[in-house]
Every structure is written in structure tokens, then in C-alpha cells.
């Protein structure tokens, strides 16, 4: 069955079989599905233009989170945060792992696979095997679909979104389990943060096609789970790593860059199946959730012998499967995407307010290679250059040059275009949120905690009491 899943580019499928532990007695498993650059283009989130029957089926047996957020808007950093429960600035995966620059998390980080292994859990890799072979023992299975990532800049023959990959056209190969689903530009729903132009509609139609492949792949994995008799003791989590690869999306800490679809299905918590939760949850919550499901204690240890001791700042989502929770705050942190894309930002979303700290706000916001060549961005560049209407809510210049502090009321201003940071009536809120953000930075050992107007001193005389020492750089 795995031809669709292994035939499409897959980031990695990691299988951890659980040995002799209490987990085996209770016979619980976890299936974690993380799509690549997927957003809310599903029927689950009320997009009526697209068909995603398998995600729909899953959502009827899941709590559907409306306010789930990535802690970082970049693929490998996000995946490292998912699998460690630590933000990128703490786990060391400051940018993309791919290609020659290969950022990595620190060797001493205690990741989810390591923690599960320490609880007598075996680890392994599954790529071409039938899943049922591996379902003999309790497991943690991480399935990372490459759909719907762009591929136009590396494999233009497959289309901007790989939408032609495996569709049976000559030169594209064939994925037998995938029935390509095509969309026309007039069918798509253009997200409000994307310019509504013929070019972006063509782009979105291609994206929808790869979402149909994602959906069918998810259907195959879930079918395999059922046929292996593991459907009713497996926690299934579906989400994505970062926002969709469109303007304001991936690589940004705006809502469009970090809001994620998130379905959590527990066969043991049926009371809220099909319900929508408004609670704020983070992808940093996945590690605590999995540990909680397996009743494994959260790790507490020191990285590099430093204080403070590493602690997970996320929380288990299992209580939200029983009852709505009052959770209303999430944090995010970005350093790089590609190696050249250094643009450190920290953010906090609290109730309806989002605060973003753009530390290097005097630099233009950087643009990544595949997004640069996307039809949507090329069209935006062309229109800007030739003075044509962009049909976008901001100008390219505004997109590149940001204020140091951005504060948005996402209820009044869902598109986050009105920065309230310099509005005197928000001074108290701004200062309170800055304080909470900075506190989270200290708790998570953020090397950038003093930037851009100070230098962190935490050695020698400052070892016991780290301090931000002033730079007097007029910021
Ligand atoms: C979809 O729309 C319905 C009807 O307005 C609403 O009740 C539901 O919460 C929406 N679902 C999501 C995931 O936002
Ligand atoms: C598990 O699934 C089987 C087959 O679908 C069903 O007969 C059984 O009642 C389920 N058990 C529980 C605890 O839900
Ligand atoms: C942008 O302009 C270039 C040069 O005129 C042209 O080749 C390209 O097709 C245009 N791209 C889009 C998306 O309009």
C-alpha cells in the first residue's frame, strides 16, 4: 500500500516500536502526521472549494483545533521543535537542515525518540515496508508527507507545487494509489493575505492538487492502521510544520505564517469528537502530549551544564480532548530559514493580540529561493516594478521593512495590517506582553534575549546572574 506514501517525496518516516514497558500493557500507540507547508485548504476548516475526504473522516473522530500555532515558520526548525518540545533557539536547529548548510539540533538535546527509547522503546525506520508488518508491537510512527511543498525551483518539470509528480503524464512517473484531482483557477479560494491575481490563482490550483495527494496518502495510512487492528488504541495527530508558502505565510510569524491545522484523535476520548476547540495550542505541545499518552515523565536536564534546567514549556493536549481549556497564549521564535535568511524574530500571541519583535528590523525581510520563483511572488514583483495594482493589502516595501515592534489586534484586524505598537492607548498592553515574551526567552535560554540593544553576559562574573549589558546603539 505504501506506494503513494513512499512514491511521493517523503521527509522521513520514523517508526519506534515499544518494548517491554507499561506502554505495552496498555497497548497504546501514536501516529503523528505532519504535512509540509500545509494550511487550512481543507474541508475540515470550511474551505468549500477543495475536496479532502480522508481528512474529513479523521476530523469527525478528532478535536479540531482552530488556534494551533507553530513555534517557528520554517520546515526543519519546526520539525525539530515538534520532536523536542523546545523552540529552535533552544534546541539549536536555527535554520533549515537541508542541503549543504545542514543546521542541526544539539547532540545533547533529549528528543522524543530518545525519551521513548529510554522507556524501553525500540526505534527504527520504515520506508517501503507495509505498515502492518511493523504493527506487531506498540509504536510511535511519524509520517512526514512532502505534499504540499513547492518544488518549482528545484524540479520545475513537476510544476510549482509538484502537482504533476506521479500523475502519469509522460516524464512525471505514476503513483498507482493517487488519483490526481485537478482544480481550475476560478475554483480556488484566495486567502485574504495573498494577492488575488490570475497568477496566484494558478498557483493555488496547483497547491490544491498536491493537497489531494496528501489527503489520499493520509487515507492510505489510516486504512493500514485500521487493517492492522490498531485504530482503537492509537492517538493520531495531524498538523503541518509552518504556514503556506505565500506572501505573509511561511518564514513569517504573522498568523498566516504560523497558524496550523491540527486534528487530535484519541480513540479513548470520544466526548469531543468532531468539535472545534478555540484553545490556543502550540506544536511545542506535541512532545508533552505524546509523553503524557505513554505516561513517560517530562525530561528535566541541563544543556551544556547551564542554568536554567531545560523544561518543556508546552503542555499535554489530552485535557483538551475532554473539555475546552482556557489556554490563550502561545510563543514563537525564528532565526533563519535558508542560510542567508537571518531575520531573528520573537512573538507572543495572547488572546486576540499578537506581538512580534523584529530584532533586525533595519534589514529588509529576506526571501527564500523557492518562494521567490513562485508564480505568486514573481507576479507581485512584476506588478510592483511596473506600477500595476498588486491586489495585496500591503506594499512590497512594507513587507520588506518592518517596525521593530508589531502589535496587532487580530480580532479587529485579522489581516494584521494596523500596527498598534506606537499607539499610546496600547502602551500598557505592549509593555506587559514584552515582559511575558522576554520571560519566555529567559526560561527557554534564548541566546537572543538581549538583542538588539544589549549583549548577553552569562559567563565569568555573570555566570550565576546573567545580564543584558547595554550597547548604547540608539535602539
Ligand atoms: C466551520 O463552520 C461552521 C459553521 O459556521 C462552524 O461552526 C465551525 O466551527 C467551522 N469550523 C472551523 C474548523 O472553523
Ligand atoms: C476496537 O475495534 C474493534 C473492531 O473495529 C471493535 O470491535 C472494538 O469494540 C473496538 N474496541 C474498543 C475498545 O473501542
Ligand atoms: C514577470 O516579468 C518577466 C519579465 O518581463 C516575465 O518573463 C515573467 O513571465 C513575469 N512573471 C509573471 C508571473 O508575470
Automatic annotation (TrEMBL):
<keyword id="KW-0325">Glycoprotein</keyword>
<dbReference type="GO" id="GO:0006027">
    <property type="term" value="P:glycosaminoglycan catabolic process"/>
</dbReference>
<dbReference type="InterPro" id="IPR017850">
    <property type="entry name" value="Alkaline_phosphatase_core_sf"/>
</dbReference>
<dbReference type="GO" id="GO:0030200">
    <property type="term" value="P:heparan sulfate proteoglycan catabolic process"/>
</dbReference>
<feature type="signal peptide">
    <location>
        <begin position="1"/>
        <end position="23"/>
    </location>
</feature>
<feature type="domain" description="Sulfatase N-terminal">
    <location>
        <begin position="137"/>
        <end position="295"/>
    </location>
</feature>
<dbReference type="GO" id="GO:0016250">
    <property type="term" value="F:N-sulfoglucosamine sulfohydrolase activity"/>
</dbReference>
<protein>
    <recommendedName>
        <fullName>Sulfatase N-terminal domain-containing protein</fullName>
    </recommendedName>
</protein>
<keyword id="KW-0378">Hydrolase</keyword>
<keyword id="KW-0732">Signal</keyword>
<dbReference type="InterPro" id="IPR000917">
    <property type="entry name" value="Sulfatase_N"/>
</dbReference>
<dbReference type="InterPro" id="IPR024607">
    <property type="entry name" value="Sulfatase_CS"/>
</dbReference>
<dbReference type="Pfam" id="PF00884">
    <property type="entry name" value="Sulfatase"/>
</dbReference>
<comment type="similarity">
    <text>Belongs to the sulfatase family.</text>
</comment>
<feature type="domain" description="Sulfatase N-terminal">
    <location>
        <begin position="28"/>
        <end position="123"/>
    </location>
</feature>
